[in-house]
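I'm stuck. Protein, please.
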Amino acid sequence: MAESMQLPLRIGLRDSATLANFYPGDNAVLIHTLQQVAEPFIYVWGGAGSGKSHLLQALCHAETTAAYLPLGELRELGPAVLDGLEAMSLVCVDDLQAVAADPGWETALFHLYNRVRGEGGRLVAAATLSPAALPVVLPDLRSRLVWGPVFQLIPLDDAGKLAALQLRARARGLELSAEVGGYLLRRSPRDMHALFALLDRLDRASLAAQRRLTIPFVRDLLS
């Protein structure tokens, strides 16, 4: 690929996205499957904030040659961004729903699937909808989406959200007690994007103030 085509493919690839700091909850089988190299194609679906993007980016970090494509951001660039990706050992296509029902994109994705498979690479796709519910028009692409394992990301319950927050906090060298974590869950938005963003804010504030995360400190910050 030309250098100008490589740069957009790393948009949104966060350094913090690793498999080690992803709390699996009831998704252990999915995590195990993603870590293996036996499956040439895997489809993952789940609601916003369920962790799809984190998982795809984590896989790209762990791979020598990989491309991460958030189609919601790249759609306006056109399906030509898929050209030459079969040279990668791993291609992760995120937000598949953003281009579903677009004939040009669907055709390009179908050919990308075949090229990656032909070169012995791996393709992982993620969307907010299951393959059956995704409004894909091209029959050949629809059939390809169920040729490999299909996993729904099971949302975390409150205990899982607390455990995920504590895991992310430990990765930052931050101590988050169950009491403080429970306080956050009761007084902030419940989706993991918002909770992790709040944890980032607390981490910065704690470092600046040289204070531990206590309920009074968190309460003052939130107010």
Summary: The chain has a mean pLDDT of 90. The first helix runs from residue 3 to 6. Residues 3-152 form a domain with the Rossmann fold fold (CATH 3.40.50.300).
